[in-house]
Amino acid sequence: MITCSAPGKVYLFGEHAVVYGQSAICCAIDLRTRVQVAKHDSIIIESVLGTTGLDLEVHPYVSRVIEKMKGYEDIEGIRIQIDSELPVGSGLGSSAAVTVATIQALNQLYSCGLQLDDIANMGHAIEREVQGNASPTDTYVSTMGGVVLIPERRKLKDLDCQIVVGNTGKFSSTKELVSNVAKLRQEFPAIIDPILTNIGKMAHIAEEHVNSNDYETVGKLMNVNQGLLDSIGVGGAELSALVYAARNAGAISAKITGAGGGGCIVALTSKTNANAVAQAIKETGAEAILTRNTNEGVRLEP
Ligand code: MEV
Fold this sequence. Notes:
single chain, alpha+beta, Ribosomal Protein S5, domain 2, Alpha-Beta Plaits, 2 domains, 4-stranded antiparallel sheet, 12 strands, globular, binds (R)-mevalonate
């Protein structure tokens, strides 16, 4: 039996724009998905979504991992148990984390010899198959950990501030939101393309400020990024309520993280103000999660 885990992530900059080749800054967080695998006489996948065999509807990511890993090893039966601190469909990278942790767990169980880059690449291929259009961001960051500029794959300095996540509890479909942005872009390329380009520019400008712990400047830019996400239609009343609750409670910054529509916001706060920001988020009726940046990507659990 093997257990592997992989972290979720928040975007400081660049969700959606990164799908079109613009830069993003994404940060692995200390909330993990654990995947336990053991040889078995049939295929069983167990998670909060239910217990199934190979099932592309209920367990699309894990089922595709099994299919891909069959190219390395003759997998006839396997029992996979998934246990996650990441809410599903919340913009915290739950699908990337489960994909990456499952690949590594099967890689270890069958000694397939996959390296971290292979895992990130296979994870990205699977996200593309499920979502239609997916950037390599979530799977790369979940594999490698840290704060990363994508597509450059450059590791930045770890964040020396607190991360507070606000969860609307409203399921958000990345596939649907990515497709909505694609339609808007097709309709108004002259308007939407510069917005996406400007989001990418913000990630580049922010890089040096992340590396110098200048969170005031990073935060100002994140708040501008939030406005641009709203303008491309991935915001919503619940998300805005959380963004303003966090900012009014003194957060350095607050913006949507991930696909939007529902899901989560991310706020950067000083270490002393994190509880006040979390409390303000809770007072809106949403869940607040205090977390921090982690440098540990996918790992074998003892
Ligand atoms: C989803 O976590 C982030 C998006 O940019 C999609 C992607 O990068 O694949 C919306």
